[in-house]
Design a protein that fits this description.
The complex is a heterodimer. In chain A, the strands form 2 sheets. Chain A has an 8-stranded mixed beta sheet with strand order 6-7-8-3-9-10-12-11, with helices on both faces. The two termini of chain A are about 35 Å apart. Chain A has 13 helices and 12 strands. Chain A is α/β, with parallel strands linked by helices. In chain A, helix 4 packs across helix 5 (about 140-155) and helix 5 packs across helix 7 (about 175-185). By secondary structure, chain B is of the alpha/beta class. Chain B is built from 11 helices and 12 strands. Chain B has helices at about 60-65, 90-95, 115-125, 130-145, 160-175, 190-210, 220-225, 245-250, 255-260, 265-270, 305, and strands at about 15-25, 30-45, 50-55, 75-80, 85, 95-100, 180-185, 210-215, 230-235, 235-240, 315, 320. In chain B, strands 6-7-8-3-9-10-12-11 form an 8-stranded mixed beta sheet, sandwiched between helices. In chain B, a hairpin with a 2-residue loop joins strand 4 (about 75-80) and strand 5 (about 85). In chain B, helix 3 (about 115-125) packs across helix 4 (about 130-145), helix 3 (about 115-125) packs parallel to helix 5 and helix 5 runs parallel beside helix 6 (about 190-210). Chain B is globular and about 65 Å long. The relative contact order of chain B is 0.14. Classes of the chains: A alpha/beta, B alpha/beta.
């Protein structure tokens, strides 16, 4: 018995060591005039080296704030109030300003949803690429940085990179701009790339190009990606692991197959029922009732409780903790406890019946 | 009067060779036409939904707006219920055809209460005898789209995106139209709210028998709601077919790549399917390629494609395709 316990503890530790980035019980709040908004409310996950982690949720679920908390680029009113973000075992929340500057870009970079507003319109593409290169990498001279910038643009599939680096962002199409953003993010060869809705502003055919590019680059460079999106389709085709967020909390955490084929949280189930899929074209969609959560008036119990059809009394009063499901993935829903209890009781009843016989 | 203005037909909406060119200034006195819609023809039966899909900039929104004469068409004819739509009769006909806009935030007047927003079309078309009738009609409409009666005195900013879209739909339904142009009505909504609005569109159609031109870029949503789907590329229709037929048997190379680019929310399908990734971007509509506009990104392109635009031809059961090689 003692041996297995020791083994289990070791396994957890190994898991942690395995993780490149480990977020533990993260709480991020915004202090606004109308009160404290708890945008992220106890989020934990591990990001393994060379893996793609998907963060999915509706607007206001706290998925982007989680990403910004890791990069420490929150708006002025925002603050991480509790929790740890461990990068290779070091808590980056304790980093000095200088250390954080090195972490950003060098170890971890981010691409944003809207490539038009996140590129500086007054400088050429080449200037913006050189800035990152000269600041963070060995390419200090202008000509060396220029050569590297052209290489990077080539890598992300920008045609005629020699002439492109002299152009301004407005001269490029949306897809091209997003490629430039990716090139900038990759300039310092980071271990982690955070992509915050990278394809939401793009058309489907361009989206497909960018997603393929991200997959290829991830294989080539071996970096880990955190992909933040609301699009379940993008998540399904890209991610090794998925976390589903609602109201600043993690509802469910598991592999793509766990989430799509064996969902154990009422929100995940509702979400999957409510989107048109290849299999439900002839059927009516089953929407999730109610309206999205108001972050200023968070419910005491489960965040999803006001919209949940199967809510119980306990859901109103008590926040469900993350529980491990029989197949190994995690969900935070009281109904699973009820189900397990009922199953146990049924098994017991069957047992007594057998004994009686 | 001209004899050609009335004709009998099984179609509610008949569009022939619709053209909409916008002049783009290139110098002080010179301008070139931007061919936003270039010779589009389609029909919609009463109570039917035609989905119109394509990438941004392909002209799908312009088609919807030109039908309602929010833009004056450059060429082509539009018969509504057998009647040729002109500048003269459009004001009367707008009682029969309405529009729901993409952005539920900017398409509602922030200074008007919900009651006034929904009542405005009733005012314009003089559809009530007294104030009580107006109020009753508005209440019925609000109930129809699932809004509470106490919402009537509130302003648009007090509502969530999904509720605002319901207000927009109630406004469109106020005049009891036969045809509604829905311009990306669910794109701005959250996933869990999208389904509510899609269901409502479907229920309203069953109840009221209204026909939709459903413009959207999300192919899964369009497939779910439409009986037939038209695919547009750079101002031209490249394929029209039954929704299921189009999805199971796409013929035009553009439709093929568009469908394969859709991320399917199902990991197994996603792993197995092979994406046909299109090279390059959509060409600028100011510098349209000669012949077929898709030829610059098409892997089957031949010399003929550069010379001449293929016409839509029937490939059986009303599956129309405009391609030389497929």
């Amino acid at each position: 018995m003692a041996v297995t316990e020791k083994n289990a503890a070791q396994k957890v530790k190994e898991n942690e060591e395995d993780a490149l980035l480990s977020v533990r019980d993260l709480h991020t709040s915004f202090f606004t005039d109308s009160g404290e908004v708890q945008a992220v409310n106890g989020v934990s996950f591990n990001l393994k080296k060379g893996k793609i982690l998907g963060v999915v949720g509706e607007s206001g679920s706290g998925k982007s704030v989680t990403a910004y908390s890791i990069m420490q680029i929150l708006a002025e009113t925002g603050k991480v109030v509790k929790g740890e973000i461990l990068y290779k075992g070091e808590n980056i929340l304790n980093y000095s300003k200088k250390q954080m500057e090195d972490f950003r870009g060098d170890k971890c970079s981010i691409i944003f949803q809207d490539p038009m507003t996140s590129l500086n319109p007054t400088f050429t593409v080449g200037w913006q690429l050189r800035e990152a290169l000269q600041l963070h990498t060995k390419y200090k001279s202008r000509s060396a940085a220029n050569r590297r910038a052209i290489e990077l643009l080539e890598m992300v599939g920008v045609n005629e990179p020699e002439s492109r680096i002299k152009q301004y962002p407005f001269e490029l199409s949306g897809g091209m701009r997003q490629r430039v953003m990716i090139a900038m993010a990759l300039a310092c060869e980071p271990d982690i790339l955070i992509a915050d809705e990278p394809t939401t502003a793009l058309d489907v055919t361009i989206q497909a190009q960018i997603l393929e590019l991200m997959k290829d680059l991830q294989k080539q460079l071996g970096m880990a990606i955190i992909l933040v999106t609301h699009d379940l389709g993008v998540i399904a085709s890209m991610c090794d692991e998925i976390i589903v967020m609602y109201g600043g909390r993690v509802c469910e955490r598991g592999t793509a197959d766990d989430i799509f084929y064996r969902p154990c949280h009422e929100y995940t189930k509702g979400l999957l029922r409510s989107i048109p899929n290849v299999n439900n074209m002839k059927e009516k969609l089953i929407p999730i009732g109610g309206t999205p959560i108001n972050m200023l008036a968070m419910p005491k119990g489960c965040a999803f409780c006001p919209r949940c059809e199967n809510a119980m009394k306990i859901c109103l009063d008590e926040k469900p903790e993350e529980m491990q499901m029989p197949d190994g993935h995690y969900a935070a829903c009281w109904l699973n406890v009820k189900k397990a209890y009922e199953e146990e009781k049924a098994a017991e009843a069957a047992g007594t019946r057998e004994a009686d016989a | 009067m001209a004899q050609n203005t009335k004709k009998n037909s099984e179609y509610l909406v008949e569009v022939h060779d619709l053209k909409e060119y916008f002049p783009v200034k290139t110098g002080l006195f010179t301008s070139v036409p931007l061919k936003a819609v270039d010779g589009v023809s389609f029909n919609i039966k009463p109570g039917e939904t035609l989905g119109l899909v394509g990438e941004s900039g392909c002209g799908k929104t312009t088609v919807g707006r030109t039908l309602l004469r929010l833009y004056k068409p450059t060429g082509g004819e539009f018969y509504f219920n057998g009647e040729l739509v002109t500048d003269k009769n459009i004001h009367r006909l707008r009682k029969e055809m309405q529009m729901v806009f993409q952005d539920p935030y900017s398409s509602l007047n922030p200074r008007m209460t919900v009651e006034d927003i929904i009542g405005e079309p009733l005012d314009i078309h003089h559809l009530y005898a007294n104030k009580k009738e107006r109020h009753d009609k508005i209440m019925d409409l609000m109930q129809l789209v699932g809004l509470n009666a106490e919402h009537a005195t509130r302003y648009a900013h007090e509502f969530s995106g999904g509720q605002r879209q319901r207000i927009g739909i109630a406004r469109a339904l106020a005049v009891d139209p036969k045809f509604i142009v829905c311009d990306e009505p669910v794109s701005a909504l959250d996933v869990s709210i999208q389904a509510q609005v899609i269901n409502m569109f479907e229920e309203l159609q069953e109840k009221l028998g209204v026909a939709y031109l459903f413009i959207a870029h999300d192919l899964l949503v369009v497939h779910h709601i439409s009986q037939r789907i038209a695919v547009m590329y750079l101002g031209k229709l490249v394929e029209i077919a039954d929704a299921d037929e189009l999805n199971s048997n796409p013929i035009h190379p553009y439709t093929l790549s568009l469908l394969s680019a859709v991320p399917i929310p199902d990991p197994k399908t996603a792993r197995e399917s092979k994406r046909i990734v299109l090279e390059g971007d959509v060409p600028s509509p100011l510098h349209m390629p000669s012949g077929c506009p898709f030829r610059t990104r098409c892997r089957y392109a031949t010399e003929q494609c550069a010379r001449e635009m293929p016409a839509l031809t029937d490939r059986g059961n009303g599956h129309m395709v405009a391609c030389w090689n497929k």
